[in-house]
Amino acid sequence: MDNNIYQVYEDEIQALEEEIKLLTEKYEDIQQESTFFSEEEILKSIKSFHREMQGEPQGRESPSDLKAQLESLEADLSFLMKLTGFQFTSHSKKTVEKTRDRTVQKHRLSGNCYSLSFQLEFQLLEMQSKEKVSSVITDLNIIMESGEDSGVSKFVSSVEEHGNLVTFFRSLSTYAEWYEHRRRTFLHFK
């Protein structure tokens, strides 16, 4: 009986240690992001925020305005999902490196397009010069249920090699729509 009590305490300690580790990582990410901005930039942002808040007559939007805005956004999202067939189920972002002129973020994205599910992992490298910000996708990894279709596998490999997400989403939308039509047609004849 005493061993069971000790095991429960040890399990609780281990769970707390894991939680501390995750919170420490989040804190470090936040610290890393906050050190990216100079004191001058932070003060400018605060002053700009105060000007915006004072410019509004009420200072904050009413709950009914926020509710109407939320309903409008939900309608827009629903329209886009019907139009493209995409439904994103999860997204995570982690800052890997951040300097004054360079930021590297690791993204994980999963979802489905009609009945085909997919997962993406990639790094987004943003470089800032004097007047221009450029972004490059690196280390793209696409996981997709392609079944026995070798054409999809070749396409996914090509997209991973070139790191072109726009091509992937456009092509996947068209392919998944026709895949869904074929699936329904074959089900009809069974």
TrEMBL record:
Q: Which domain of life is it from?
A: Eukaryota
- One Pfam family it belongs to: CENP-P
What is one cellular component GO term in this UniProt entry? nucleus
Q: Which residues form a coiled coil?
A: 6-33
Keywords from the named record: Coiled coil
The alphabetized list of GO BP terms reads: CENP-A containing chromatin assembly
Signal sequence span per UniProt?
A: none
For this protein, the record's InterPro entries field holds: CENP-P (IPR027801)
Q: Which PANTHER family does the annotation name?
A: CENTROMERE PROTEIN P
What name does this protein carry?
CENPP protein
